Amino acid sequence: MEKKDRMAPLKWWQKAVFYQIYPRSFADGNGDGIGDFIGMTERLDYLADLGIDAIWISPHFPSPQFDVGYDVSDYVGVAPEYGTLDDFKRFLDGAHQRGIRVILDLVLNHTSHLHQWFIESCSSRDHPRRDWYIWRDGKNGGPPNNWNSPFGGSAWKYDETTDQYYYHYFLTEQPDLNWRNPEVKKAMWEAVRFWLDLGVDGYRLDAIGTIFENPAMPDHPCKMTQEEMRRALNHGFPDGSDKKVGTLWKSMYGEQYEQEGVHELMQELRAVIDEYPDRVLVGENDDVKYYGDGSNELHMVFNFPLMKTERITAPWVQANQKERLASLPPGAWPCNTLNNHDTSRLLNRYGDGQHDDAIARTSLALMLTLRGTPFLYNGEEIGMSDYRLPDISFFRDPPAVWFYNGEISSGTSPETALLLAADDSRDRCRTPMPWSNVVNAGFSPEGVTTWLPVNPNYAKGINVADQRDHPESMLNFYKRMLRIRKQTPALINGDYTPLHETAENYFAFLRHSDDPEQTCLVVLNLSDKALTLKFELQGGAARGLFSSHKPGSETVRLGVLELAPFEIYIAELIS
Ligand code: GLC
After folding, report:
1. DSSP letter assigned to residue 38
2. Max CA-CA distance within the chain?
3. Among 28, 206, 407, 567, which one carries the catalytic annotation?
4. Of all atoms in ligand 1, which is nearest to the CA of residue 107?
């Protein structure tokens, strides 16, 4: 089966490298401190030159922005601060003219509380839209059950007008849709078709795991309060163990995610998408069940387990690949990422404080050489790092404000609470893209207050303009590696064979493609030590395709390979 799949011609999304744009922070075209479509369109040449093939845009729809666009108030519009539908179309056309595909972010679980659907749903118990959301009577003078929202507090919000509670997994401003109501599906599939008709290439599906809850709505059995759990997750458990995190989380929130019905729903959505040629669905979930039988559900789900570590080590990646690739149904295509708008940037996440730049480079090499489609996040190509906001008034991420308030009410000093919250806040990775070394990092004109402060390290070379002309910059490294991937079929469609599986310091593997016939050796030295490695491979010789340290395409005997600290080495085997 594996062999047959490999020979099948690949779809565009299997060959593509995706690049996530966080629209509020990418490029401010009209100088109001907020990114927009005019800005994004102006930067398409930059993206084409970088060498990415597809863009995922985080939500661009009208929204009151309680969760920076993940609270949608109109699924068929464009947020006015991002531009008009025509601006969107110009962006889409411009991307397509450059051979870049565009996928949108589809938030299915919930809408904004200001969506017309919810406003009507709230208006009376008899309104035809009442049942579009999840309403329940209270119990014993309180909410219907003890469920919480991981964004803070009860998952229920009382509505005085109709004397009932509505359910929200995320913020109170994000009421959950009732997906058991066929009218909800119908309305959402219409919105899905609206953008597909305009020519968008697919969707990244937000928070699919929480679309359904246990309909019996039993109380959760967790003995901890939510605040105790938050503290344990952020400060560690009193006994020093953190092994219980997954189990604990499940005991509190387990009735609220991965419930019956979600796979049938995703299959229905797949059928909608399949009415259009060549579109793609990527799920924000790591459960391989979402691949269905490999052809009837989502095209890809993220390999999040790979990124859930403090260090990218060889044993970690070996184990991840072994498990992940074996778990995929036949025909399913892997999808890897180390970065997005919800997590600490990879430089901080995996850096050791001493070799961050080198670690960022080996991390990119890993993304671009593992089997599967890589997703990159805007700004990583210039080595953007997290920015810890210096004042609580700058915070835009509501769970971080909840975190801060929790710390304050449990007696933590404001200074410490700020540091802790800034470290945890998703704002840290959402700061504006630094385009040049001028005030406001060239994101917005001087004198404009940007929606989140720019990271001051733009003045230390973390900006596009300064890196463009530096051959050794992170930006040029990204360009080189993206080019190598594009030119090397085995890195795109090849199968994966691990080598030296017990190695601690380096990660080595082969990628082999039958059509065209090519075998590549990839060796990533993930340590700060020089290494001398022995490879006994067929033919015994290789032509270097890429090295972060050695000069270009030399032919080497593979018996002994000398690697510099953190060297990335890719070679084509010669038989
Ligand atoms: C997803 C998004 C995240 C958002 C949440 C609720 O996890 O990635 O940013 O807050 O869903 O929509």
Report:
1. H
2. 78
3. 206
4. 12
Q: Where are the beta strands (DSSP E) in 207-298?
A: 280-283
Q: Is 206 a known active-site residue?
A: yes
Residue 21 CA, chain-centre distance (Å), reads 10
Task: Please give the distance, rounded to the nearest whole angstrom, from the Cα atom of residue 209 to the centre of ligand 1.
Answer: 11
The pLDDT, as a whole number, for residue 190 is 98
Which pTM was predicted?
0.96
Find the 69 Cα to ligand 1 centroid distance in Å.
9
| Selected catalytic residue, list 213, 284, 424, 427 | 284
**Contact criterion met (CB below 8 Å) for 157 and 166:** yes
SS3 content of the chain, % helix, strand, coil (to 5): 35, 15, 45
Using the 8-state DSSP alphabet, how is residue 511 labeled?
Answer: E
Residue 81 CA from chain centroid, whole number? 23
Tokens coding 154 = 């009860």
Three-state DSSP string of 295-336: CCCCCEECCHHHHCCCCCCHHHHHHHHHHHHHHCCCCCCCEE
User: Is residue 562 annotated as part of the catalytic site, yes or no?
Assistant: no
Q: Which helix (H) or strand (E) holds 416?
A: helix 414-424
Return the DSSP state at 176: B
Q: Report the nearest atom of ligand 1 relative to the CA of 170.
A: 6
Residues with CB under 6 A from ligand 1: 67, 70, 107, 170, 206-207, 284, 341-342
Distance 48 CA to ligand 1 centre (A): 28
Q: Parallel, antiparallel, or unpaired: how do β-strands 18-21 and 560-563 relate?
A: unpaired
Rounded to whole angstroms, what are the CA distances from 569 to 177, 494, 544?
49, 17, 8
For the chain (length 575 residues), average pLDDT per consecutive 10? 56 98 98 98 98 98 98 98 98 98 98 98 98 98 97 96 98 98 98 98 98 97 87 70 73 96 98 98 98 97 96 97 98 97 96 97 98 98 98 96 92 96 96 98 98 98 97 97 97 97 98 95 97 88 89 72 95 89
How is residue 86 written in tokens? 């025509």
